[in-house]
Structure formats: C-alpha cells, structure tokens
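User: Good morning. I'm curious how zinc ion would be positioned relative to this chain. Could you predict the structure with it bound?
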Amino acid sequence: MKESKTNIEPKDANCFPIYYLNDCVISMVEELKSIGIEALIADGLGKRIRFEDLNGQISDIAFLDLSDRIHLSAAYCQFLWSICFVALRMYDGIKVQNELERLNSNERTQYFEELEKYKETDTIEELRQYVDWEKCTKICYSVFESGIEIINNKIDSFDKYYTLPNATESNQGKVNAIYCYAIVFILNHEISHFGLKHPYNVSKSQEEEADSSAFWTLYSDIEVSKKISAMIGTLAALCSLMFFNESLNGDDQHPDEDKRVLSALSIIKDEYPHYLGFVIKLFEMWGYYFSYEEYFTKIRSESTNSEDYFNKILIFFENKKQSNH
Ligand SMILES: [Zn+2]
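Assistant: Good morning! Here's the predicted structure, ligand included:
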C-alpha cells in the first residue's frame, strides 16, 4: 500500500473537496528538482504534511513547527480554491464577453450555431459557460461567498462545497491546476525556510527570501507548457494573503501583502499580459470583500488601460496604508 503523505484521506467523509487534489500537489512538489525534497527530508524535514483546521476555521495558513513538520490549513486551501475559481472564471468570461460585443447580430447568431454544432469539445463546453453571463456571474458570486464564509468562520456544513462547482469535478482541470500550483508555492515557501535554515522566528527579510526562493523554483523548474498555470497559481497564492489583512501593512515578520504580489508580478508581467489582468481581478475581489467596490469602479472608469488602472489601484493601496497610521 502506498504510504500516505498527509494526515488526511479524501475518503474520510465530511471534508472539503480540495483534499482530492492532495496527491496531485504532493507529486508536483516531489517533481521540482531544485527543491531536492529527498535530501531535505534526509536532513530532518518532516515527511508528511499535516492538515489543520479540519473543522473549517482558519487559524494559521501554513507553518513549519519546531520539529520541522509542515502544517497547512485545509480551510485556507478551500478558500484559495474558491478565489482561484472566481478569478479565472470572471477573467476568462470577460474576455469572451468582449469578443461577443465586437460581433454584429448575424455573426453572433452564427457563433451560437457553431456552439450548438460542436457540443462535445472541451473548449466549446468551456465557452458555453461564459455565454450565459448572468448565470456565470451568479455561480461566481456563490462560490466567492462560500470562500468568504470560511474566512469569516461561518461554515455549518461541507455539503455546500460539493453542490457548488468544486475540485472533484472533471471539468475543473484549469482551476485545479492553478490551485495546485498555488499550494505548491505555499508549501515551497515553508520548505524554503527549512532549506535556508531560517530560525523559528523569521525576520521580514527572511520572509522575502522564502517567497523569492519559492518563486524562482517554480519559475525555473516547471516545463514551458505548465509555466503559465504555475505563475498564475503563485500570483493567486500571494493575492489570497491580502484577504487576511485589510490594512495591507504586513506585520512584524511579513512584508506588506500587496508588495509580496508585486515582487512576483514585476518579474513576469511582460512575459504574458494576462498575468496583470488576473491580478487585477483578484485585487477587485479584495476590493469587493472589503467594500471598496465603488472606488474601484470609479478608478477603472477613469483609466485609459489595464496598466493605468493597475497603477491607480497601487496608489489607492499606498494612500490607504498612510491613513492606517
Ligand atoms: Zn514564511
């Protein structure tokens, strides 16, 4: 029998759907050559990942304990999956809507006829979910709410997480890939603390070092065909941290949350324009969650392009931080 790499098996009923991706996440970590996981384990890094927060309340996202075992919050993982789903669905959906708007009514009819004709292909199936925009946004809203319920400690049952789109569904390949890489980044950050021999009480610069090491491992080790998913996953993981601190001022040990996103984004931004678009989507979700939606809508309407909008959001973050003091 295969040795279990975590303390959880998906067959233990009453758990979040994301457990079904555990094996996938672990094998991705094992495949990253520059981590050299086996040597680190030989050096004392705990072999199994311990899932915490099984009841659905987030205590600590992830940490390395005094015995060098990695702990990961299962509840955080499910929250992360939810925001990956929404950001991706909304971002891709808006692209499709923009395409549709450019078509005249004849072309549009033809477009829908084409969709009907090719029922069976995955891409068409994927496009179809965006055509009914109202339905698409409604689903996104529900999934987002289900994630927010986790960070607000309002979970009453796990059932909802299976009735909404979730990680166990075969058509969630794209979201699952992004989520898995996001968790790989989070785990890799903890592994980096161990590999770099950081003390238990890390400093801010050691936190930055762990982020940087986790980023570069993913950036350099992943084969080209999977790189975009890996980078989007990394950005999603870093953006997710912003939801835990409205002030964005970091803390004694951690750099400002928005700065952590920026240090990764600034390296890869020019390689693929959709990285910026995806981060903007997550920033907007953050704005929605903390009731800054109106302000985001205002600065978006005043912006000439995504880059300009993005810079205006960054100025907003900075001003906000000043006023926190
Ligand atoms: Zn850390």
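DSSP finds 14 helices and three strands in the chain. Residues 19-45+171-324 form one domain.
Let me know if you'd like a different ligand tried.
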